[in-house]
Amino acid sequence: MWHHIVLILPVVLPIVTGLAAWKIEKRERRNALVGAALVVNALLTLLAVTTGSEELVLWQLTETVPVYFHVDGLSKLFALLISCMWALVGIYSFEYMRREENENRFYLFYMISLGVLIGLSFSGNLVTMYMFYELMTLMTLPLVLHEMTREAVAAGIKYLLYSVFGASLALLGIFFFFRYGTSIAFTPGGVLTAESMAGHEKLMQWGVFGMLVGFGVKAGMFPLHGWLPTAHPVAPAPASAVLSGVITKAGVLGVIRVAYYLAGPSFIRGTWIQSAWMTLALITVFMGSMLAYREPLLKKRLAYSTVSQVSYVLTGLSTLNPMGFVGALLHIVFHSVIKNTLFMSAGAIICKTGRTRVDELRGIGKEMPVVIWCFTIVSAGLIGIPPTCGFISKWYLAGGALRLGETAFTWIAPCVLLVSAILTAGYLLPVTIRGFFPGHDFDYGALERKEPSLIMLAPLVALAAAALALGVFPGALTRFAEGIAALLM
Question: Which end of the chain is less enclosed by CB atoms within 10 A, N or C?
Answer without folding.
Answer: N
